[in-house]
Amino acid sequence: MCHQANKVGLAHGYLSDGKLIVDKLVKPAKNQSVAEIVSSWIVPGSTQLLAIDAPLGWPVSLGQELFNHVAGGILNTEANTLFRRDTDRFIKEKTGKLPLDVGADRIARTAHTALQLLNTITMLTGAKVDLAWSPELNPGCWAIETYPAATLKMSSIRFQGYKGPENIAPRQEICANLS
Hints:
Elements: E1 10-16, E2 19-26, H1 34-41, E3 47-52, H2 60-68, H3 79-83, H4 86-95, H5 105-125, E4 129-131, E5 140-145, H6 148-154, H7 168-178
Parallel strand pairs: 3-5, 4-5
Antiparallel strand pairs: 1-2
Helix pairs in contact: 1-5
């Protein structure tokens, strides 16, 4: 997925009697291909959902503004409108958590990498990865954008203080609560 595959975490799961069973957790090595790992999990003819912790699009106003922009010229759109999507405003309204602006350096690179990943999976499997705009999915490969901290918060599960190698206990607590 990126030049730093070892900074990516992957989980594979399946539904059984309406429950999600996570059966694989993978932290790729630096030289491993995230796309190849994920592609090996794709089962042709079945319904696959890829949940990606990265933006999968940019604000409409950003594209419109940049299309006519000339270097040195003023940007006529207010910054929050330019760099935040309707999705981001919705998440903030519902959860109180504001995702990073998609135009920000690191998250924009993450978004770019995620879209490259979806394209590479399509090339490796021959199965086009479409965005899941509806909860009803037909057989095929689908992708959704996720925001784990907001999901945890809305599930009344710890959503802060779990990152980093020193925070094993908080992650174990999260896993127990997700169960």
